[in-house]
């Protein structure tokens, strides 16, 4: 059973979720149209998971939704939680170029597929390769690895989540997916309150550098 | 000038980072390449945590090798082949040291 947040909070978060979904849908519709008009060719295929080693991040709100999804499907387990702890241990506060080259798999990557593909964060949902997927491998990453431009949708989603979080004196911070999931779990278990999150994140960040 | 992390090149606070003293052999290699060798190197804690993980550390070193080779103009398939050899040697040496 998932702990429910106060009604006003649930409402604000649900509103942000809807706005986020419509932004991503708009992005996907545009992509679909460009593909149909043959002005764009994307090369991602099922089974390819090079981008599951990339420094993918999500907002706290996305983490809460992802956690809710995993829990609802009975996929949030002790081994997954342990994998998240291990992942955070390596990626928290880690500069992204180092993260990319270290080939640290996303904790949701299991047997070459995403455990929560339908509920994956915007960062994962909007990454589309335009070139040879061979060059998407983190070690082969170069100018030969073009992606569909997604800056606009990312900025818009960040603005939406930031507005929802500001009510709780929180700001939008891109978190490793594992960190967002563990924070969502702590919120769900009542070990942490939303209002305490800013201070907790700051303390965790400081701790990572000491 | 503030010292930087040997992995990510970000500035580090030497009181809050991993200090890596260099032995004579290491110093002479750096001296030969860069003309001057420091007494020690520094590594920030986030990067240090990656270096302590055998899988992530070896992949990172392989990745840096491959990317550097590519940047130096080595064709990507050749850079990958060399990086694979380097990675295999790295694992062999580590295994030999630990047995």
Folded structure, characterized:
The complex is a heterodimer of chains A (210) and B (99). With 210 residues, chain A is mainly alpha-helical. Chain A has one domain (8-208). Chain A is 51% helix and 4% strand. Chain A is globular and about 50 Å long. Chain B contains four helices and two strands, in the order E-H-E-H-H-H. In chain B, strands 1-2 form a two-stranded antiparallel ribbon.
Runs of chain B in which pLDDT lies below 50 for 5 or more consecutive residues are: none
Average of the residue pLDDT scores of chain B = 93
Q: Give the low-confidence spans of chain A.
A: none
Oligomer: heterodimer
Helical region count of chain A? 8
Task: Give the fraction of residues assigned to helices of chain B.
Answer: 55-70%
Number of E strands of chain A = 4
Q: Provide the gyration radius of chain B in Å.
A: 15 Å
First-last Cα distance of chain A: 37 Å
Q: Secondary-structure blueprint of this entry?
A:
The complex is a heterodimer of chains A (210) and B (99).
Chain A: H1 7-36, E1 57-58, H2 60-72, H3 78-91, H4 96-101, E2 109-110, E3 113-114, H5 122-125, H6 151-166, E4 175-176, H7 177-188, H8 197-208
Antiparallel strand pairs in A: 1-4, 2-3
Chain B: E1 18-21, H1 24-34, E2 40-43, H2 45-51, H3 54-71, H4 76-98
Antiparallel strand pairs in B: 1-2
Helix pairs in contact in B: 3-4
